[in-house]
Each structure stands twice: as structure tokens, then as C-alpha cells.
Design brief:
This protein has 372 residues and is an alpha/beta fold. 62% of the residues lie in helices and 8% in strands. It has 13 helices and six strands. The protein has a six-stranded mixed sheet with strand order 2-3-1-4-5-6, with helices on both faces. Strand 2 (46-49) and strand 3 (54-57) form a beta hairpin. Helix 10 runs antiparallel to helix 11 (249-274), helix 10 packs parallel to helix 12 and helix 12 (281-330) packs antiparallel against helix 13. The chain is rod-shaped. The model has no long low-confidence stretch (mean pLDDT 85). The structure holds guanosine-5'-triphosphate and magnesium ion. The site of magnesium ion (MG) has 4 residues, from helix 1. Belongs to the TRAFAC class TrmE-Era-EngA-EngB-Septin-like GTPase superfamily. AIG1/Toc34/Toc159-like paraseptin GTPase family. IAN subfamily. It holds the Pfam family AIG1. The chain crosses the membrane at residues 312-334, 340-360.
Length: 372
């Protein structure tokens, strides 16, 4: 039968490599001389084994990019390398005595996003390092580690429940080898419910979570790009509104269409990145509202032109009909001398009327631009 593989994950300096060494009963992984967090890029996972077990030690998985000189992409790359060969259990290392803060909760969520939401439930085991500190804390009341686990509340209780209280306390510094043997045996006997090995297939199935994680990491820069675009759209609209008297409706429409095109391109880009994760929904909504505003303004301007022309031609017909009515009721004799004079007067009246309606049209158009 194959030796079981244990993957070690957790935040920096929690004692992962030390736990790995205790499991293997020999110093195979380099440990930090102090618990200080170093800002170095995460290195590739390391594998080591003995006759009973294979251990894969990681340095970066479970730490957010802000703690490390590496981004989420590189952490995912490391996780990918770690899961290529698969593992039978994932050991999440926590340092005993450190409060389970939001940072710790985020790290747990990050591990779930990378390996799959059920990775703790199906393959997870919690190992608490600094068992020597636990002994010091409980030497007066003699509380057992199991009792201590049951007593915990809040977010850490949720995590305990998720792993169904599969927890072990490790004293990696202690010289008590009998105690370490006990801890190691307890760990090796713990069987996660999913007996099937975590494989590359499971890793591929969790790709949506990783995409979401990358998007969340890039959210701020995408938000900044979107804010810049919205500001640009608003500025262009304001500039065009101020200059609309100097621009024809056609020019105004064309320039607004250019702005609309840019907004639509940005929307498509966001939509492409979002891929149904809904992380960018807020940004998408903002851009969509602007495109709707721009679109309806353009439609308004386009519609305004034919309607006004129709009005004008109707008014012209009515005008000539009225003139004909007046002339027929006045019974003016249409002899050769009078005809040119009448046409001349017609012309002057028509010109005045046209001028009047043009002025009215300009005024109306300006109002339409402001309200669109
Ligand atoms: N007292 C005590 N110290 C421990 C214990 N386990 C780990 N340490 C110390 O904690 C420090 C960090 O341990 P590492 O095993 O290097 O931690 P790590 O999680 O592998 O660190 P990174 O690889 O940098 O993420 C070292 O100085 C260890 O000696 C423990 O059970 N008790
Ligand atoms: Mg280490």
C-alpha cells in the first residue's frame, strides 16, 4: 500500500516545517531560527518521506499577498505544484496561544478558495504547534487539549466543527520523544472522511474559487480604472453640454457615440473578467448605468431632428392653405400686375415665418439637449 501523503499549509511562521520534522522524526525541512515573519517570495513546496509517510511542506499557501513579496497568482502556482501528486490529508498548522484573528480567518478562506470549499471538511486536520506553551498555560488546572478544543467559541469553533474536531497538539521543541511519538501516532491514525486522495482533478474542479480570489486581489485596480472611466464619461458629457450651441445635433451625437463606445468596451472587459463570479457586479452596474444614460441621450438627439422637420412641413402646408383661404374670401382680382406683387408679399411673409420657426426650433433643441 502507498504511504499516505500529508500536505502542510498555514500562515507564515506557524511551525509548519517543524511539524513536518516532528512527523518525520528527523530534521528534513529548514525551520526559521525565530518566529519572525520574513518578507521573501514563497518557495516551491518541498517533499520528504520516511518509511511510513510522505510530507509536503509549503511556505506560502494560506498567506495573503500583503504579507508576502508574492501575489495570489504565485501562491496558486505553488498550490498547483503541491496538489499535482495529490495528498491524503491537509494539515493546517496553527500556533497555539495566538488569537484567531480576521487575518487567520482570511487565510483559512484563502486555502478553501484555492483547494475547494470542502477541503477542510473532507481532508482537513488541524495541528497546533507550541504544545509546550499549552502545557505552561494548563499546568495549574490540568485541562486536556481535547477539552480545550471543545471549549473554543467563535470562528475557530466553526473551523473545529468543519474538521469534525480532528485536532492534534504538537510540541516540536520538546525533548520528550515519548510524547512526540504519541502526537505523531494520533495524527497518523486520524482518517479524514474522504478516503479518496485529493487529486489534480479536485484541484481543477476548484478553479472557480481561484478565479474569484484573483479577481478579489485585482478588485482595487479594476475599481480605479472604472472610476477613471466614469469620471471621463461625466467630464465629456459636461464639456459637450457646455458647447452644444456651437455643435450641430449630428456632431453632438457622433461625439457622444465615441464616449459610449469607450464605456461599452470597458463594460465588456469587466464582464469578461468577472466570468459569472459576481465579484465585479458593483462596477458593472455603475458602467451599465452610464451607458444607458448615454444611449438614451443619443436616441433623444436622433429623434429630435425628424420630429421637428415634420412639424415645420405641417406648419408650412397650413400656412399656404390659410393664405389661399384669405385670398379667395377677399376675391382679389388675379390680373397680370397684381400677381408678382402678391408673390413678393408671400415670399416676405414666408421668410419671416421661416425665421421665426427656426428661432423657435433652436430654442426647443437646446432644451432637449439639457433634458436628455
Ligand atoms: N517553542 C516552540 N517553538 C516552535 C514550535 N514549533 C515551531 N517552533 C518555532 O517556531 C519558529 C517557526 O517555525 P517554522 O517551522 O520554521 O515555521 P513555518 O511555518 O515553517 O515558517 P515558514 O516556512 O516561514 O512559513 C521556529 O523558530 C521554530 O523553532 C513548538 O512546538 N514550540
Ligand atoms: Mg517552513
Amino acid at each position: 500500500m502507498d504511504k499516505p501523503t500529508f500536505l502542510l499549509v498555514g500562515r507564515q511562521g506557524q511551525g509548519k516545517s517543524s511539524v513536518g520534522n516532528t512527523i518525520l522524526q528527523t530534521k528534513r525541512f529548514a525551520t526559521k531560527t525565530t518566529g519572525a515573519v520574513a518578507s521573501v517570495p514563497a518557495a516551491s513546496p518541498e517533499r520528504a518521506d520516511n518509511d511510513r509517510v510522505v510530507v509536503v511542506d509549503t511556505t506560502g499557501i494560506g498567506d495573503s499577498g500583503s504579507d508576502r513579496a508574492g501575489d495570489v497568482q504565485s501562491v496558486i502556482q505553488l498550490a498547483n505544484e503541491a496538489s499535482v501528486c495529490g495528498f491524503d490529508a491537509m494539515i493546517y498548522v496553527l500556533k497555539y496561544g495566538v488569537r484567531f484573528t480576521k487575518q487567520e480567518k482570511d487565510a483559512v478562506q484563502m486555502v478553501k478558495s484555492i483547494f475547494g470549499e470542502n477541503v477542510f471538511r473532507d481532508w482537513g486536520i488541524l495541528v497546533f504547534s507550541y504544545g509546550d506553551n499549552f502545557d505552561l498555560d494548563t499546568e495549574d488546572d490540568g485541562m486536556t487539549f481535547e477539552d480545550w478544543c471543545q471549549e473554543q467559541t467563535g470562528d475557530i469553533k466553526t473551523l473545529f466543527e468543519e474538521v469534525d474536531y480532528r485536532c492534534v497538539l504538537f510540541d516540536n521543541r520538546g525533548k520528550n520523544t515519548a510524547r512526540q511519538d504519541q502526537e505523531r501516532d494520533k495524527l497518523l491514525k486520524l482518517k479524514p472522511p474522504r478516503l479518496q486522495r485529493y487529486s489534480d482533478e479536485d484541484f481543477q474542479a476548484a478553479s472557480a474559487g481561484r478565479e474569484k480570489l484573483i479577481l478579489l486581489e485585482n478588485f482595487q485596480s479594476l475599481k480605479k480604472e472604472t472610476d477613471d472611466l466614469l469620471r471621463y464619461v461625466d467630464q465629456r458629457r459636461e464639456t459637450l453640454r457646455r458647447n452644444d450651441q456651437r455643435l450641430s445635433n449630428d456632431d453632438l451625437t457622433k461625439q457622444l457615440e465615441v464616449v459610449l463606445q469607450q464605456a461599452k468596451q470597458h463594460y465588456d472587459r469587466l464582464l469578461d473578467k468577472d466570468r459569472g463570479t459576481k465579484v465585479l457586479r458593483e462596477l458593472l452596474d455603475q458602467v451599465r448605468l452610464r451607458t444607458i444614460g448615454l444611449g438614451s441621450r443619443i436616441d433623444h438627439l436622433r429623434l429630435a431632428i425628424p420630429v421637428r422637420r415634420n412639424d415645420m412641413s405641417l406648419i408650412a402646408v397650413l400656412f399656404w392653405y390659410l393664405i389661399g383661404l384669405i385670398l379667395s374670401s377677399c376675391k382679389i382680382p388675379f390680373n397680370y400686375c397684381l400677381k408678382p406683387a402678391i408673390y413678393f408679399i408671400y415670399g416676405i411673409i414666408a421668410r419671416c415665418l421661416q425665421y421665426f420657426y427656426n428661432a423657435l426650433g433652436r430654442h426647443q433643441r437646446r432644451r432637449e439637449k439639457y433634458t436628455a
